[in-house]
Specification:
two-stranded antiparallel sheet, two-stranded antiparallel ribbon, disordered N terminus
Length: about 350
């Protein structure tokens, strides 16, 4: 990894020097009237690169345009006291020097921790941004200076933000334990389960989402940074979670000629999306589930009487679905009762 980085930096430096050698004569020969297409930025870059006084890249403070007068000391000074944090930082996306959006592409450690000159002189952690000592609001303010789009668009006002959680509650720059996303735990499920223990317990039931098998993870359905949907559900903007469910269960999406109202309202009316002890992750056994709504019409509750329960087809097998097979909806002209 180190050799690759050196090669990349060396190649980039060579390209910049070639640009200076080619562009500088054109810049110097360009008329001052402004007729030339050479922009002020190109002119300044060519002159700076060709100058014998160009700052060496080995000086991180000067290379990013900061100086000790601004209170910055540079990465080398930080690493002299914090070598372990420097080594762990090198393994993250924050350390991509050729990406101007990263800390390494700007002011390094001090992009997040702030100017560290006074801290380096005094050794007082209160003189920099020391995240374990900062409030959740202050930590969020630092991180969202960069992470404020895409996945993090809806962080402000999200449920986690409202519970006084912050970025470092789940993520760590210097002590990540996961293979991706720099989480403080080895897996998303383990991390989310620390707070959402009831949902983690449901994953252990007989019928469950394939999370513990590794086919899905909490973030497959939820965006922990917030969303425009309920329960931080990732898909859709409706007041239900159906868009997330039909992303995989497309055959249940419809539209149908004959629609089953609970299906259109919310899949969670009948199913528990995290896990259940009932077949097909139903919230209750059949026919009790169906008779939460269908209690007084068609098939009455007399199947629970001693004389009927032993022989009723609605008390065993797939119960109501023995006959009403297309329970999610039907496109058959005679499918009013979801029997075909």
């Amino acid at each position: 990894m180190g050799t690759r980085r050196v090669l990349i930096v060396a190649t980039g430096a060579a390209a910049l020097m070639m640009f200076a050698l080619v562009a500088l004569p054109e810049v110097q020969a360009a008329p001052a009237s402004g007729a030339s297409q050479v922009t002020p930025a190109v002119r300044a870059a060519a002159v700076w690169l060709a100058s014998p006084e160009t700052v060496e890249p080995s000086s991180p403070v000067a290379f990013v345009g900061q100086s000790q007068e601004d209170g910055f000391v540079g990465d080398e000074e930080c690493r002299s006291c914090h070598p372990e944090q420097g080594d762990s930082y090198d393994l993250t996306k924050h350390a991509r020097e050729l990406d101007a959006r990263t800390p390494a592409g700007t002011t390094g450690c001090e992009s997040c921790h702030g100017p560290a000159l006074e801290h380096a002189e005094e050794g007082d952690a209160a003189l920099i941004n020391d995240f374990p000592l900062m409030s959740a609001e202050d930590v969020t303010e630092v991180c969202t200076e960069c992470h404020n789009r895409g996945e993090q668009t809806f962080w402000q006002g999200s449920q986690h933000n409202g519970r006084d959680l912050t970025c470092t509650t789940c993520h760590s720059v210097h002590a990540e334990a996961s293979d991706k996303a720099q989480l403080v735990k080895s897996t998303q499920t383990e991390l989310c389960g620390e707070c959402h223990q009831d949902k983690a317990a449901k994953m252990l039931r007989a019928n469950h989402m394939p999370v513990r098998e590794g086919k899905l993870e909490c973030g497959s359905c939820h965006n922990p940074h917030g969303s425009a949907n309920v329960k931080m559900v990732r898909m859709g903007t409706s007041m239900t979670a159906n868009d997330a469910c039909t992303e995989c269960h497309a055959e249940k999406r419809g539209p149908f000629l004959w629609e089953h109202a609970p299906v259109q309202e919310n899949c969670a009316s009948c199913h528990d999306p995290h896990g259940s002890s009932n077949d097909r992750m139903l919230t209750a056994k059949q026919p009790m589930l169906c008779q939460r709504c269908h209690a007084h019409t068609r098939h009455p509750a007399t199947i629970y009487d001693d004389n009927n329960v032993a022989t009723s087809s609605r008390a065993y097998g797939r119960s109501c679905v023995n006959c009403h097979q297309t329970i999610h909806g039907s496109n058959h002209p005679a499918g009013k009762f979801f029997q075909r």
